[in-house]
Amino acid sequence: MTRTSMPAAPRLSPLPSRRDLLHAGLGALAFAAASPIASAVFAQNKAQQKKDAAGKAAAAGFIDAHSHIWTPDTAKYPLAKGFKKEDMKPASFTPEELMRHAKPEGVSRVVLIQMSFYGFDNSYMLGAIQAHPQAYVGVAVIDENDTPAEKMRELKKLGVRGFRIRPGERKADAWLAGDGMAAMWKRGAEENLAMCCLIDAKFLPSVDRMCQKHPETPLVIDHFARIGVDGEIRETDLANLCQLAQHKRTSVKISAYYALGKKKSPYKDLVPMIRRLLDAFGPERLMWASDCPFQVQEGHTYKESIDLIKNLDVPEGDRQWLLRKTAEKVFFG
Ligand SMILES: [Zn+2]
């Protein structure tokens, strides 16, 4: 189109009309000053715009699928029985402290994982989600013997998308056998809430059997089922983890590099394990996570963790799944 074919620009009158003001965004202000209702609508629109913009910005970034937060304020958020302040290392790891590590690496959303110090009291995590619903969702811990299915539904309304389960002192053939676990897995399938297993590799066959009983329950395995935690990556453990790929709703967090294999940056010794999982699960069922604050202690850094995946020799589309889309699908959907 040539310049001469463009329609002439409308001439502005010397005194702006209300329409001009509206176009300039000033009319709303003038209008708002004149009417309390309009003022409220204007404020609401502004708030919505701000929320939309925040949502868009958050959606563009990467997702850290696993980090913990806590506060030194134990008067307001008391520790569960058996925990002391000295157990909190570092003493403080608030959402602000977490995002100071995450934001510079392009991470805009985090799946918060209820910290063991707080037992079944998820309130500190829920408060963070409530304050920043665009940035956080949660994985809660509940008592499987105290109306778990009802609690799951209530917590879902507060931004919880998964539930952390772990064997504790129980044996591999016993930890998933109770009525409470059955109720949780059933409700997980009904409400699209993930069972998030913090387990060692020896528990993988028990999880496999549970998946056969509950094929529709979303399942997330934390930290490669801790394969390599003793420094050795065993073929039998890897085979058992890959066996879970047959259950279509299962995904794995490829995370906690500071704790696995050689436990040394740049963590390249973990790449063959990641490749093995890529073959078994595909990038659409693997998600990167930091496991902060533990990833940022003793000389390890957040950047070193995410860089392993940023620099991994995979197609760019696969990387997007590992760093964002899988966690988005499982936890932010
Ligand atoms: Zn963790």
Set out the fold topology:
Blueprint: H1 18-24, H2 27-34, H3 36-60, E1 62-67, H4 95-102, E2 107-113, H5 123-131, E3 136-140, H6 148-157, E4 160-165, H7 179-191, E5 194-197, H8 204-213, E6 219-221, H9 235-243, E7 250-255, H10 271-281, E8 286-289, H11 302-310, H12 316-331
Helix pairs in contact: 2-3, 6-7, 9-10
C-alpha Rg (nearest Å): 24 Å
Secondary structure tally: strands: 8
The set of bound ligands, ions and cofactors reads: zinc ion
Major sheet: 8 strands, parallel
Strand content: 5-15%
How is the largest sheet built, in terms of strand order? Answer: 1-2-3-4-5-6-7-8
Helix content: 40-55%
Q: Output the number of helix runs.
A: 12
Order of H and E elements: HHHEHEHEHEHEHEHEHEHH
Q: From the helix content, strand content and strand pairing, which structural class follows?
A: alpha/beta
Number of domains: 2
In short:
This protein has helices spanning 18-24, 27-34, 36-60, 95-102, 123-131, 148-157, 179-191, 204-213, 235-243, 271-281, 302-310, 316-331; strands at residues 62-67, 107-113, 136-140, 160-165, 194-197, 219-221, 250-255, 286-289. With 333 residues, it is of the alpha/beta class.
